[in-house]
């Protein structure tokens, strides 16, 4: 299996621009998670989906952030408008059903907002 | 909200030494996970623990699920240069089947 796939790997944009991050979970996994990692705050869960339905978005910083999962093999995290404080590494992870629902991470998208 | 306390924050050790790090929580967990993250990569799962008292090894790595269900440790024996990275503990609270909480990480440095 190719593992969790994220794109782009790097993104540099200017403040105010829209940013869209993409994720393809591992085939057969039915849970998908979006995380943000910074030096100051570590790994933070932003939102997660079960069977394409958002379950907990309490970690989403504010209305500028939105996430969608239109089907089992694709999810997006959008920031509009972006701000310098959004600069971070954004990870997508997926897991299967059952008790042993271990999460597997993608390589991350490094976002720099100037 | 729930937080995990992971210690130490960083370690500087000599190659060949054993390493020990741990994680504690204020509530009961039903799963403990240990991840390693290398520069420019996402966290990679090392060991997963699902039962109190469980002791699991993966090569030179050994992790245990504490009897109280509120702690876990990770040991690395005979460290080598490629062990360098950030080690994260993570856990899932009872009755929170999907949401995983991460510790702040232990940054491991190995001196030649």
What labels would you give this structure?
heterodimer; A: 114 residues; mainly beta; 7-stranded mixed β-sheet; 4-stranded antiparallel β-sheet; 54% strand; globular; B: 112 residues; 6-stranded mixed β-sheet; 5-stranded antiparallel β-sheet; 0% helix; 56% strand
Briefly summarize what is shown:
The complex is a heterodimer of chains A (114) and B (112). Chain A is mainly β and 114 residues long. Chain A is built from no helices and eleven strands.
Distinct helical segment count of chain B: 0
| Arithmetic mean of pLDDT of chain B | 91
What percentage of residues of chain B falls in helices of 4 or more residues? under 10%
Q: How many strand segments of chain A?
A: 11
Instruction: Give the rounded overall mean pLDDT of chain A.
Output: 92
Gross morphology of chain A: globular
N-to-C CA distance of chain B: 40 Å
Beta-strand content bin of chain B: over 45%
What would you say this structure looks like, in words?
- Chain A has 114 residues and is mostly beta strands.
- Chain A has no helices and eleven strands.
- In chain A, the strands form two sheets. In chain A, strands 2, 4, 5, 6, 9, 10 and 11 form a seven-stranded mixed β-sheet that branches. Chain A has a four-stranded antiparallel β-sheet with strand order 1-3-8-7, with no helix packed on it.
- In chain A, strand 9 and strand 10 form a beta hairpin.
- By secondary structure, chain B is mainly beta.
- Chain B has no helices and eleven strands.
- In chain B, the strands form two sheets. In chain B, strands 2, 4, 5, 9, 10 and 11 form a six-stranded mixed β-sheet that branches. Chain B has a five-stranded antiparallel β-sheet with strand order 1-3-8-7-6, with no helix packed on it.
- Chain B is globular and about 45 Å long.
- The interface between A and B is medium-sized, with 23 and 21 residues.
């Amino acid at each position: 299996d190719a593992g969790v796939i994220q794109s782009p790997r790097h993104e540099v944009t200017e403040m105010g621009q829209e940013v869209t991050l993409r994720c393809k979970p591992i085939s057969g996994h039915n849970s998908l998670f979006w995380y943000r990692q910074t030096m100051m705050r570590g790994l933070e869960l932003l939102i997660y989906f079960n069977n394409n339905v958002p379950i907990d978005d309490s970690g989403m910083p504010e209305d500028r952030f939105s996430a969608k999962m239109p089907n089992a093999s694709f999810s997006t995290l959008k920031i509009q408008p972006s701000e310098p404080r959004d600069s971070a590494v954004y990870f997508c992870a997926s897991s299967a059903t059952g008790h042993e629902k271990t999460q597997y991470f993608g390589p991350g998208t490094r976002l720099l907002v100037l | 909200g729930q937080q995990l306390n992971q210690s130490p924050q960083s370690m500087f050790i000599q190659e060949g030494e054993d390493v020990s790090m741990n994680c504690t929580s204020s509530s009961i967990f039903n799963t403990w996970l240990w991840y390693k993250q290398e520069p420019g990569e996402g966290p990679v799962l090392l060991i997963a623990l699902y039962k109190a008292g469980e002791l699991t090894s993966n090569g030179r790595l050994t992790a245990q699920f504490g009897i109280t269900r509120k702690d876990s440790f990770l040991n690395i024996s005979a460290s080598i240069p490629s062990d360098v990275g950030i080690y994260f503990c993570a856990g899932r609270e009872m009755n929170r089947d999907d949401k995983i909480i991460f510790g702040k990480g232990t940054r491991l440095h190995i001196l030649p």
